[in-house]
Amino acid sequence: MAQNLEESQKMIPVVVIGGINVISTLIDFGIMTLIYLLVALTINLEFGYAGVPNFGKVLFVAAGGLFSGSLSYYLMAWILNIRESGSDLLSNQFRLHNSMDLALNAHPVLNLGIFLFMIAVGASCGAIFGFAASYPAIRLREDYLAMLLLAAGEFFLIFVQAYSPVTDGPDGLLIPDVLGFTGSILDYRQVVLLGLLALFTVGVYFYAEKVARSPLGRTLRAVRDNEISSAAFGKNNVAIRRNILIVGSAISGIAGALVVTQSAYISPETFVRQFFTLYPFVVVILGGAANNFGMVVGAISFEGIIDFVTNFQTYAGSHNISIPIDLNAVTPIAIGSLLIVVLYFRPKGLISEKPSKTLKKSELLRIKERAEKTTESVKEEDKKNGLETSDATAASDGTGG
Amino acid sequence: MISPLISQSIIFGSLVSLMCLGLTLTYLTTKVPNFAAADFVTTGTYASATAFILWKLKSPYLATPLGFLFGGLISVLMYLGVLRPLIRKGSSLIMLMVATLAVDLIFVGGNLLFIEDLESWYGRIISDRGYGNFYTLYALGDFKLFGDLGMLYVGPISVIVISAALYLILNKTKFGIAMRAAIENANLAKTVGINVERVYVVSWFLAGGVAGFAGGLFSIVYTTNQNQASLLIVSIFAGSVLGGLNSIYGAIIGGLLIGFGEIYITGELSVLVGKFVSASAGYAVNNFQLGIPLAIMIITLLVAPQGITAVGWRRILRRAKK
Q1: Which of A111, A232, A362, B291 has a 20 to 30 Å separation from A260 between CA atoms?
Q2: Is 0.95 topped by the overall pTM?
Q3: Is B300 among the domain residues?
Q4: 115-174 of A, contacting B, C-beta below 8 A
């Protein structure tokens, strides 16, 4: 243990300013920002581009996280040849998860396999729930849809609390720790998690960006902006909405699976509406809907505000400054008020939606150059012929030709 | 003496019915589903429960008007402070829904702050008088009438009185007719000189007030906590959707059916499962209570999206007779 501590000090320098461990704070900041960003990107796909207000986001994140966690537990028990009945498996979790962690540490391939299994389960659970939710959802008006999804999310969390095989009820379940190879060095573990999250988030970001720029992205916007005209152009609105809900939910499921690897512990309280529906929505509105880069800006500024409040608390604590009110309660109030202010003054967010770029920048420049050239040549021809034409007609001639 | 299951179902049904009435009244005026609707209930609960305990009132029922008042005030504050500016700015429906979610978030923090303060000031009084603490407030206790809980009578009677009062206001007074006109067509109402804004403010006050009053009654028979809102919102949405969201009387009936069904079906199911599977499995059924309003909501939306009041019951009955 002492050796480990020394190691950790060697690996991750500790810089303390005003009672705050700067580097570990930054790592935590990165982790939370990436989690919110990942979920916000899926909301952006569904709500920003396709106009499906998924107010039950917590349902899909929780489904991915809780099922991937508990199924990995059962899978490990099966691999380790532990043949006990379901309730015994759960009640002996403290003993069993130790042997699971030992096995995972001994076999790196198994460790990787379990991690990939969790991601796969997260994605497929998210997709299945997304498909199930899409059946009533795509047929409804947006306000009914929002109410239904929100209610479904609330029910799911209560369902998990009551249905013990998932997380052993409200007690929670210690799941196999796929980040166990980092040992007892807490910061190292966080760095690894940060890397994993960054990997997935960057992937999802580029996927979302590709969707936004592709013909599919323009179809999504068409469905969002005018259902009737998109149907008139032969687009299947219902199928498009269903597919985007499935894709968005699958990615949310992956986000859930990544969240549970952090603490290697799942309980119904891991996922609450406030953190996995409301906060990502704040990120989307703050950054600007239908704009992937806006999500990055939104997530960073949102988590910046939250972290500022928590660190202020630590700072005050270390300097014996007493704060008359509870900052944990102030955070939601501040975030809610901020959201309303943004909705009023900047309803399009910090960075508003831009027309989609369908061509590469170099190609656009080339076209522009050619258009200018032809305009000039037409003008010169006109001069030669002694004709006096206005610039406007010349320009339109040029682009036309 | 009525069987406890039915009595519980009636009590819960009438309380949910009042809450649904609150949601529907706000939906009628602004056409936005209010995701903070259940928070008005919590406000009413804490306002009346605190008054009852601190002022040593003779009966918790005496404090419920305070729930009405506070619920109404909070509701008007929300309308004037959040929704009206956004509506004037021309925000889309989704943006307005997000705004009500933001208000819900403010309530999450606000309740916590408020409850923490109350707990630090009066916590000892609460626990000394046997009401737990502000985080988990025990039921305030009801009087007995003919061997039943008083709420079994007070609940349905309040529903009847409030709906009768609403009927009279809406149909017999000048203000009520103006209100109906403003709800039906705001622009046309404006052209004939109706002050639509005032009508909206009054309906939001009534909506929040009824919800707060229901919250006050709720605290008499149920143990409450600060997370109560997020559980109740499912039943409230389900009841309002069942009622069609566009009809006051639909909301009352829808809420009654949802609340009654939620308790009654769960109770019957738990007995049934207990008989066939095991007693503990039967007991566990109670935990899935919220599945019933959700299921009813989904079925309503798929079968009769306009709600039960819009269904042509007479035609169906006639067909059934043939």
Answers
A1: B291
A2: no
A3: no
A4: 136, 139-140, 142-144, 146-148, 150-152, 154-155, 158-159, 161-163
